[in-house]
Design brief:
191 residues; four-stranded mixed beta sheet; 4 strands; Macro_dom-like
């Protein structure tokens, strides 16, 4: 994340959540490219600011594809994402929504431990979205709702499952999130 965005985020955090402490929610700002984040940094989920088609081939989505798809199959994660988007939204996730996509099994074997992508489109196609004052809020709200819902369902399953049976998955407890709609979307770092 660019230093200016980190500074703006930290200022907004102090202003909007003055009693925030790391015990409540650990937030680590990282000013690195995805492929240069230290190898010891692991996370369960990465947030994609993809357009509503779920194509992971531009800007940060390109970095996601290059990091998690096999070299010989750049579009592996895009295909997995579009399959879920088609099933849930008939192919077009509404801007402001969030769709959790579990990595296909071969892609789960990555040094980051990442097994999920959260598709949070801020626009239908690359365009200025400054006219939509709520789009980033809606995406983040949807993201938190989807992660909390997944974790809650997992917890319910674990409390009702027979002893000895294998859990469906693991809890999502860490994520990578870049600023949303700040490139082509032209949303200012202050907003």
């Amino acid at each position: 994340m660019d230093e200016d965005y980190i500074t703006s985020f930290e200022k907004a955090l102090r202003t909007q959540w003055p009693d925030h402490t790391p015990e409540k929610l650990k937030i680590t700002a990282i000013n690195e490219r995805l492929n240069s984040i230290p190898p010891t940094t692991t996370f369960d989920l990465i947030v994609s600011p993809a357009n509503f088609y779920g194509r992971l081939d531009g800007a940060f989505d390109d970095a996601i594809s290059r990091t998690f798809s096999p070299r010989e199959d750049y579009h592996a994660l895009t295909r997995a994402t579009q399959l879920v988007l088609y099933e849930k939204w008939r192919g077009f996730a509404p801007p402001g929504s969030c769709t959790l996509v579990e990595f296909p099994v071969p892609l789960k074997e990555n040094p980051r431990g990442c097994e999920w992508i959260a598709v949070c489109p801020t626009m239908r196609e690359p365009d200025d979205v400054t006219w939509d004052r709520e789009i980033v809020y809606e995406c983040v709200w949807s993201l938190l709702d989807q992660v909390e819902g997944y974790n809650r369902d997992l917890w319910k399953e674990s409390t009702s499952r027979k002893s000895g049976s294998k859990p469906r998955g693991k809890r999502i407890s860490s994520m990578v999130l870049t600023p949303l709609a700040v490139g082509v979307g032209k949303v200012s770092k202050e907003r």
